[in-house]
Amino acid sequence: MILCLARGLPVKHYSRFKVKSSGGIKILAPNNLFRDISSVHLNFSTLFECSGNGIFIIDENGTIIKINQSAEKLLGYSRKEVLNTDAGRLFVSPEALPEIKDGAAQAGKIIDREINIRKKDGNLLDCLLTCAVYYDDQEEICGYLVIIQDTTQQKRIENALLESERRYHTLFEDSLDAIYLTTKQGRIVDANQAATQIFGYTIDEFLSLHANTLYLNPHGRIQFQDEIERNGIVKDYSVKLKKKNGTVVDCLLTATVRRNEQGEVIGYRGIIRDVTAHKRSQQREHILL
Q1: How far is CA 192 from CA 11, 112, 274, 283, in A?
Q2: Up-side HSE of residue 213: CA atoms within 13 Å toward CB?
Q3: 97 backbone φψ class: left, alpha, beta (φ>0; ψ -120 to 50)
Q4: 191 backbone dihedrals φ, ψ, rounded to 5°
Q5: Phi, psi torsion values for 186, nearest 5 degrees
Q6: CA atoms lying within 13 Å on the CB side of residue 257
Q7: What pLDDT score was predicted for residue 41?
Q8: Which one, of 263, 273, 192, lies nearest residue 229 by Cα?
Q9: What is the pLDDT confidence band of residue 82, given thresholds at 50, 70 and 90?
């Protein structure tokens, strides 16, 4: 099998067809085969230029010999500025291109490797790189097809989510008030350390409880559910709860409903503040008055 680079694009055909290189590549074959090869060339060119990802072709030495419009837009360079230049200058790490070439040569391809690209204006891009190898008819490497997918915005979103989760976790664990998540049916899904301290359970014990267990009044949770599902939120809802040892705790409960993608209520998230000491203090002051 012979691999020809027609205008920088690969075309394969069987060795029984002769090839003339003078004055361009000419395939001496039946007309239908020539039409088929021309169709492949046209389809490849269309995909090359219309791809939303940056694509460039480099030779075995790492020199850029072709790029598409998306690569121009992504990098901020015009074709004239990058053609016949070293592709290594596009990568932040000077070892990146040699590593890519070596990796692709050994495995035949690289798929979705995370890498940093430097634009013309100096800004850095987070990218996923895919690389395929071109071989000549002697099975020697003659070039590489490199596809760059810009994931910078996706990375920013991911990092923002991670930071948000970190802040939430810090708030969740450092809060002096009990924070909890339950299902609509009453299963406790999550709770912080303050919840275990207020009610006297270990975290494993607390997560195995049904929410009804915490209410002094057996109908207390039903009344809470009626209130929160009517308004979608309760704020400073006064309720008497009980500890593991049976001690009554005066609490203020602030909570919102949790909904699924269809808008159906699937549970509740809330904060429980122990106001027992505050209430006792108020009662003593009232007696003194």
Answers
A1: 63, 39, 14, 30
A2: 17
A3: alpha
A4: -160, 155
A5: 110, 0
A6: 18
A7: 58
A8: 263
A9: very high
Q: CA–CA separation, 178 vs 271, rounded Å?
A: 6
What does the DSSP 8-state code read for residue 243? -
Widest pairwise Cα distance in the chain? 112
Which candidate, 142, 125, 158, places its Cα nearest to that of 54? 125
Segment holding 209, helix H or strand E: none
Residue 252 has pLDDT above 90, yes or no: yes
Render pLDDT for 208-224 as a digit per residue (tens, 0 to 9).
Answer: 999 999 999 988 899 99
Extract the tokens encoding 63.
């020199």
Q: What is the pLDDT of residue 32?
A: 52
What dihedral angle (degrees, nearest 10) is formed by the CA atoms of 124, 100, 59, 65? -20
pLDDT band at 5 (very low <50, low <70, confident <90, very high): very low
End-to-end Cα spacing for the chain: 103
Rounded distance, CA 115 to CA 83, Å?
A: 21
CA-to-CA separations, 121 to 83, 110, 118, in angstroms, rounded:
18, 27, 8
The residue type at 142: C
* DSSP SS3 for 89: helix
| Mean pLDDT of the 201-206 span | 95
The answer to whether 267 touches 184, Cβ cutoff 8 Å, is yes
Which tens digits make up the pLDDT trace of 114-161?
999 999 999 999 999 999 998 888 888 999 999 999 999 998 998 888
Q: How many CA atoms lie within 13 A of 249 on its CB side?
A: 21
CA distance 253 to 234: 7
Q: Which two tokens stand for residue 197?
A: 């301290």
Contact criterion met (CB below 8 Å) for 110 and 103: yes
What is the average pLDDT score of the chain?
84
Q: How far is CA 199 from the centre of its chain?
A: 38
Distances (CA, A) of 171 to 5, 166, 193: 60, 9, 11
